[in-house]
Design goal:
By secondary structure, the protein is of the alpha+beta class. The protein contains five helices and 14 strands.
């Protein structure tokens, strides 16, 4: 469970569509704003053509979104508080193993600028964003089990920054387990997930022993995710 500012919140949540946005097109529109497109087709591994199309439309991983200095700036702001928490192994729905988490609303000026860059890429301007940013800290042997999130707590898009370590996320279709993909989340990368990828596929972060991408071992260490979401559809909060 999430402990911060006296609030309790559940990690596992489903995002409902707010507005259809093709992430490939959105990504292209940001080229002149300093976003690098060189990794657009290298971050996923799937043999399913229809899933590949869905990933290219509804998921983006941008390598090196953060500089080393920006990664350290974010880490230095969140780590002192995270170290006061203990790693947990009994998440409320058994979805996460070896984790600690919190939320943060106020950031220093430098880090707020970084988060504003994420918002500009991940969310259309008119879409209201959740005020609290979710921080999830997985220990070296920690992992997230397959799950599809519930709809009441946030909107259709999730954007996350990966600090300290690379990892591999796996997507598996809820109705067809043979339809799956592995997603490489490199250290200092930004990932954005929305729409069909969020509703129709379970997602998980593979444990250390299974951390491979295209046959290559992806070394896994302690990993901190800085996660932004938009507000839920009003109908889903009733």
């Amino acid at each position: 469970m999430l402990r911060s500012y006296g609030r309790k919140m559940k990690l596992t949540r489903l995002l409902k569509p707010f507005k259809k946005v093709n992430l490939t097109n959105l990504f292209s529109m940001r080229i002149n704003e300093g976003v690098n497109t060189r990794s657009l087709t290298t971050y996923y591994d799937t043999k399913d053509i229809s899933l590949e199309k869905e990933i290219r439309t509804n998921m983006l991983v941008q390598e090196d979104f953060l500089s080393e200095d920006e990664e350290m700036s974010l880490f230095n702001e969140v780590d002192p508080y995270m170290r006061r928490l203990r790693y947990e192994y009994d998440h409320w729905d058994n979805a996460i193993h070896g984790f600690r988490e919190t939320e943060r609303r106020t950031w220093n000026e430098e880090n707020q600028k970084i988060l504003n860059r994420v918002k500009e890429i991940a969310f259309p301007p008119e879409v209201p964003k959740l005020a609290y940013v979710h921080i999830l800290d997985l220990e070296k042997k920690g992992y997230i089990k397959p799950h599809i999130d519930a709809v009441r707590f946030c909107g259709n898009t999730i954007a996350g920054l990966s600090l300290l370590s690379s990892s591999v996320m796996r997507l598996v279709h809820d109705k067809d387990k043979n339809k799956y993909a592995d997603i490489l989340l490199k250290r200092r990368s930004l990932y954005i997930m929305k729409d069909a990828i969020r509703y129709e596929y379970s997602h998980e972060v593979l444990p250390e022993a299974e951390s491979k991408f295209k046959g290559q071992i992806i070394p896994k260490d302690r990993r901190i995710s800085i996660i932004l979401r938009n507000e839920p559809n009003e109908e889903d909060t009733k």
